Amino acid sequence: MKPMIGEFKNGRGEFFFQEKLNGRAMFFRSVISDIMPDSCRFEDAFSDDGGKTWKVKGIALDTRVKGESLQQNSHAPKPTPKNASTEHDGQRDFDFEIGTWKTHLWRLVDPLTGSTKWVEYEGTSIVRKIWDGRGNLVELVADGPAGHFEGLNLRLYNPQSRQWSLNFAGSKSGALSPPTIGEFKEGHGEFFSQETLNDRAILVRFVISDITPDSCRFEQAFSDDGGKTWEVNWIAIDTRVKREA
């Protein structure tokens, strides 16, 4: 099991990690609360929607042992797995994006520091289909006052979990970042991961929305409080390049 990372604030501890449950990527949260000299409460929960909602899977109430006495109460309801046969088969969800796009993007400088400085880029994205649509490769090249930017995103579909993993790399680092994992629902895609920023564990959310045949919007946000609040740090609006007749 991956380590849970977090901290205590105002006498309450919250700790998070990303893991798989029934083959699907989930966020897990452990909360330590109601801390008294002789008692405390532990609660474990999981979320399959990026932290919007949480399902409690375990509760423990601990009482300090005095002498030979021990009082402990635990309750661990098990989550009911979804019926995969009724879930959306999303292996064609990125078909709308295959082709060449003009990109106008904005990036927040130094996210999660209180910064309000944004830089702009203009560029081109080329999206190529692989594995008959069960994967695709995005190549992004953009330029702006802040300089030249090149990025690559390898997206892969997992038919067992019915989720996509988005694996991004920038040309400066030449290395893939931890994949954001998620799916499309009603034409809206949300993908999540846990990463590290300035040596602190954060949650990452990537959203694809406003999808039309010739345009779409991408938005990345960070959270350092377990998904309670999100700070947007990347916005891109793409417009399809139409071939000349």
Q: How does this model look, in words?
A:
It is a single chain. The chain has 245 residues and is mainly beta. It folds into two domains: 78 residues; 146 residues, Beta Barrel (Lipocalin). Strands 7-8-9-10-11-12-13-14-15-16 form a ten-stranded antiparallel beta barrel. Strands 1-2-3-4-5-6 form a six-stranded antiparallel beta sheet, with no helix packed on it. The radius of gyration is 21 Å and the shape is globular. About 5% of the residues have low confidence.
Quaternary state reads single chain
Note the beta-strand portion. Answer: over 45%
Low-confidence stretches: 68-80
End-to-end C-alpha gap: 56 Å
How are the SSEs placed, and which strands pair?
Elements: E1 5-9, E2 12-21, E3 24-36, E4 39-47, E5 55-63, E6 72-75, E7 99-108, E8 118-130, E9 135-144, E10 147-158, E11 163-170, E12 180-185, E13 188-197, E14 200-212, E15 215-223, E16 231-240
Antiparallel strand pairs: 1-2, 2-3, 3-4, 4-5, 5-6, 7-8, 7-16, 8-9, 9-10, 10-11, 11-12, 12-13, 13-14, 14-15, 15-16
Can I get a quick summary?
The protein has 245 residues and is mainly β. It has no helices and 16 strands.
